[in-house]
């Protein structure tokens, strides 16, 4: 018998919806709830060193869900014990209500294509994975099978069934085993279909290796993430027909935005783990010789690669995430530039300016390269930069000095400060500190 409720993994399940119906209204969601406090305090290994750690209201609980994901993703000193209660199924009722509060608040205030929406969907997926990880292997397998059976029919699953998952890139076709357009998830069906095609190997063991529980869990998690996204889309569309949104939800939405802005302040614009390499306006005085050369304008030979592959990653990381190599944490542009203001107003003008100074100007004969610039910053192959497209491609990190020497040798004209430097971004961070120190000394009054 599975001890964990389906709603603890999938709040959008029938069990989850029943919990919402029993709640009835939003009245009291911001009131202190002793039952919630007790459930959190009673959680094994939960840290309760101060009141700020323990959520006291549904609002607090909802915000802790978002905080957990942001800090787990970005903070190298993340304290798991402050959020252990999120893995305790005794908080089921509060968790489900918090989920719906977050989805509705974010969808109404910010819409389904916002930074807030993306964080909500990703955090739900991460929570599911962590909660499944708390179960025994047998319970985990049984629960995943039970839930998949309620979401899909194992017989004749056409790959087109996952059209939304595939188009949103939450699932890749290469993750799946297909036969005549049908996805194979059942072991007996796999053996029946492929036993005569597999030589010198046990088909059952091949199934365990290629599919097994891993793919089923992946599909389950991605389906719930997609359903969460679809639910917020529905809420957003309905809210457009309402006269005035519930002020309780708007208040929560603002608090979610504050949490994300604070994280950008801690891990993005306002600072980072390496305080000398926090995000800040670009200082051209600190650019390495190779970057200065590209900014002056390139001739046709090597022009495209210099702008697209070299300059675009350098300028974007130097402005937004200069500590990428020391932190070694993958981020998206919107994690540190939530509204894409720095990208639109500072980064792109500098890149486009360098492109215009090329001979001939890059976009005169190859205007499609603007799409490639967007792609290298993680926004897919689109002409305009929109948050809804972010994640379709990866945000390319700056080329190393070694790669520059191999692929763009004409750029590599080292100066004295290039010694023992392995990446132009490292040069920039060091030089920026030196320039700042020199400017500070020059501004100081002379001592008599």
Automatic annotation (TrEMBL):
<dbReference type="GO" id="GO:0046872">
    <property type="term" value="F:metal ion binding"/>
</dbReference>
<feature type="domain" description="DNA primase large subunit C-terminal">
    <location>
        <begin position="282"/>
        <end position="410"/>
    </location>
</feature>
<comment type="function">
    <text>Regulatory subunit of DNA primase, an RNA polymerase that catalyzes the synthesis of short RNA molecules used as primers for DNA polymerase during DNA replication. Stabilizes and modulates the activity of the small subunit, increasing the rate of DNA synthesis, and conferring RNA synthesis capability. The DNA polymerase activity may enable DNA primase to also catalyze primer extension after primer synthesis. May also play a role in DNA repair.</text>
</comment>
<keyword id="KW-0639">Primosome</keyword>
<feature type="binding site">
    <location>
        <position position="290"/>
    </location>
    <ligand>
        <name>[4Fe-4S] cluster</name>
    </ligand>
</feature>
<dbReference type="GO" id="GO:0051539">
    <property type="term" value="F:4 iron, 4 sulfur cluster binding"/>
</dbReference>
<dbReference type="InterPro" id="IPR058560">
    <property type="entry name" value="DNA_primase_C"/>
</dbReference>
<comment type="similarity">
    <text>Belongs to the eukaryotic-type primase large subunit family.</text>
</comment>
<dbReference type="GO" id="GO:0006269">
    <property type="term" value="P:DNA replication, synthesis of primer"/>
</dbReference>
<comment type="subunit">
    <text>Heterodimer of a small subunit (PriS) and a large subunit (PriL).</text>
</comment>
<keyword id="KW-0235">DNA replication</keyword>
<keyword id="KW-0479">Metal-binding</keyword>
<protein>
    <recommendedName>
        <fullName>DNA primase large subunit PriL</fullName>
    </recommendedName>
</protein>
<keyword id="KW-0408">Iron</keyword>
<keyword id="KW-0411">Iron-sulfur</keyword>
<dbReference type="GO" id="GO:0003899">
    <property type="term" value="F:DNA-directed RNA polymerase activity"/>
</dbReference>
<feature type="binding site">
    <location>
        <position position="418"/>
    </location>
    <ligand>
        <name>[4Fe-4S] cluster</name>
    </ligand>
</feature>
<feature type="binding site">
    <location>
        <position position="412"/>
    </location>
    <ligand>
        <name>[4Fe-4S] cluster</name>
    </ligand>
</feature>
<dbReference type="Pfam" id="PF04104">
    <property type="entry name" value="DNA_primase_lrg"/>
</dbReference>
<dbReference type="InterPro" id="IPR023642">
    <property type="entry name" value="DNA_primase_lsu_PriL"/>
</dbReference>
<feature type="binding site">
    <location>
        <position position="401"/>
    </location>
    <ligand>
        <name>[4Fe-4S] cluster</name>
    </ligand>
</feature>
<keyword id="KW-0004">4Fe-4S</keyword>
<dbReference type="GO" id="GO:1990077">
    <property type="term" value="C:primosome complex"/>
</dbReference>
């Amino acid at each position: 018998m599975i001890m964990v409720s389906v709603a603890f993994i999938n709040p959008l399940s029938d069990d989850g919806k029943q919990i919402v119906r029993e709640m009835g209204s939003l009245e009291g969601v911001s009131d202190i709830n002793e039952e919630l406090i007790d459930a959190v305090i009673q959680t094994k290994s939960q840290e309760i060193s101060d009141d700020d750690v323990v959520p006291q209201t549904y609002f607090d609980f909802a915000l802790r869900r978002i905080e957990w994901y942001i800090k787990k993703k970005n903070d190298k000193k993340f304290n798991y014990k402050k959020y252990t209660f999120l893995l305790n199924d005794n908080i089921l009722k509060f968790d489900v209500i918090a989920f719906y509060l977050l989805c509705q608040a974010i969808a109404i205030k910010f819409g389904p294509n916002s930074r807030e929406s993306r964080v909500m969907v990703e955090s739900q997926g991460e929570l599911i994975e962590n909660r499944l990880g708390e179960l025994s292997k047998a319970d985990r397998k049984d629960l995943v099978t039970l839930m998949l059976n309620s979401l899909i029919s194992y017989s004749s699953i056409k790959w087109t069934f996952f059209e939304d998952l595939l188009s949103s890139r939450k699932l890749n076709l290469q993750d799946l085993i297909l036969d005549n357009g049908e996805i194979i998830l059942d072991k007996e069906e796999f053996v029946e279909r492929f036993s005569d095609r597999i030589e010198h190997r046990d088909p059952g063991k091949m199934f365990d290796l290629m599919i097994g529980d891993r793919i089923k869990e992946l599909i389950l998690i991605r389906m719930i993430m997609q359903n969460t996204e679809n639910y917020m889309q529905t809420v957003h569309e309905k809210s457009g027909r309402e006269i005035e949104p519930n002020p309780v939800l708007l208040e929560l939405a603002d608090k979610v935005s504050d949490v994300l802005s604070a994280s950008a302040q801690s891990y993005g614009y306002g600072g980072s783990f390496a305080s000398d390499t926090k995000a800040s306006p670009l200082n051209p005085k600190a650019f390495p010789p190779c970057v200065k050369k590209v900014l002056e304008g390139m001739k046709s030979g090597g022009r495209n690669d210099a702008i697209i592959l070299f300059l675009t990653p350098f300028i974007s990381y130097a402005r937004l995430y200069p500590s990428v190599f020391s932190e070694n944490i993958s981020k998206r542009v919107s994690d540190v530039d939530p509204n894409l203001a720095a990208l639109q107003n500072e980064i792109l003008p500098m890149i486009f300016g360098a492109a215009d100074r090329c001979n001939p100007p890059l976009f005169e004969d190859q205007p499609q390269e603007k799409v490639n610039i967007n792609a290298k910053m993680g926004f897919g192959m689109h002409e305009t930069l929109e948050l809804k497209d972010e994640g379709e491609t990866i945000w390319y990190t700056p080329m190393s000095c070694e790669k520059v020497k191999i692929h763009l040798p004409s750029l590599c004209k080292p100066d004295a400060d290039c010694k023992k430097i392995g990446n132009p971004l490292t040069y920039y961070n060091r030089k920026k500190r030196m320039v700042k120190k020199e400017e500070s000394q020059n501004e100081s009054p002379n001592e008599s």
